[in-house]
Design brief:
The chain is built from 9 helices and 12 strands. With 238 residues, it is α/β, with parallel strands linked by helices. The longest helix has 11 residues, at 189-199. It binds zinc ion (3 copies).
Length: 238
């Protein structure tokens, strides 16, 4: 956190150094990312992602979208527009927030995006089926996504029963746990643990962690063996 000198922000443990929340999926020979936050460029460089087939957006908060300009590197590399998937509401917000991308002055160097509207129904990117997982982020509808037995939910503080149905059989779950204290629009640590118990995956990882959660090494000791705090650069095969 800018300007903070708490023990987490001063920690020398690499596991306490967190960029904004995003994941990269490799499946069926495709390379996909969920969300392009402000650290998108740094994350793609760090992980040496030389090819990207599509971007999927959970919602339009800036900490999940504001790296979208850097998609242009893939436009140049791959000589194609980048498919971007989101709900009608999310894509409308993208058009508003990044109006220069969609304006009449289509100058060279602009990112080139092809927007694809999704609903709550399962959709396909190439041969990969992706099932949206509607959740609530205070009043804002947000989508998590399920691919096979892997489910990813960021930015939620409530999960409707209809979405718990869609989560059945999840083996690997990634879900947001912001901090220890209650929060208006994110699960806190205790709530996230309860949600994991209800979904009952083989393994769960917490993401979207704030510095207020505490040190990785200390929080980790308190968690059940099936739950871990995610760290930047974590790779999971499932
Ligand atoms: Zn801090
Ligand atoms: Zn958000
Ligand atoms: Zn967020």
């Amino acid at each position: 956190m800018i300007g903070c000198s708490c023990e987490v922000c001063r920690s020398l443990d690499y596991r306490d150094k967190r960029l904004r929340t995003s994941i990269h999926l490799e499946i069926d020979g495709q390379s996909l990312v969920i969300d392009t936050g402000p650290d998108f460029r740094q994350q793609m460089l760090r992980e040496n992602i030389g090819k990207l087939d599509a971007v999927i957006l959970t919602h339009a908060h800036r900490d999940h979208t504001s790296g979208i300009d850097d998609v242009r590197a893939y436009n140049f590399l791959q000589n194609m527009n980048m498919p971007v998937y989101g709900t009608a509401e999310t894509l409308a917000q993208i058009k508003n927030d990044y109006a220069y991308i969609f304006g009449p002055d289509n100058y060279p160097g602009l990112p080139r995006l092809d927007l694809h509207t999704i609903t709550e129904n399962t959709f396909k990117i190439g041969n990969t089926s992706i099932t949206p997982l509607p959740v609530l982020h205070l009043r804002l509808p947000v989508l998590g996504f399920r691919v096979g037995n892997f489910s990813y939910i960021t930015d939620a503080n409530a999960i409707p029963e209809t979405t718990f149905e869609k989560l059945k059989g999840t083996k690997t779950l990634v879900i947001n746990a912001l901090q220890r204290e209650q929060h208006i629009s994110h699960f806190n640590l205790d709530q996230a643990i309860e949600i994991v118990k209800k979904i009952n995956p083989e393994k769960a990882y917490f993401t979207h962690i704030s510095h207020k959660m505490g040190l990785h090494s200390e929080v980790s000791k308190e968690l059940p063996s099936t739950i871990a705090l995610a760290i930047d650069g974590l790779q999971i095969s499932c």
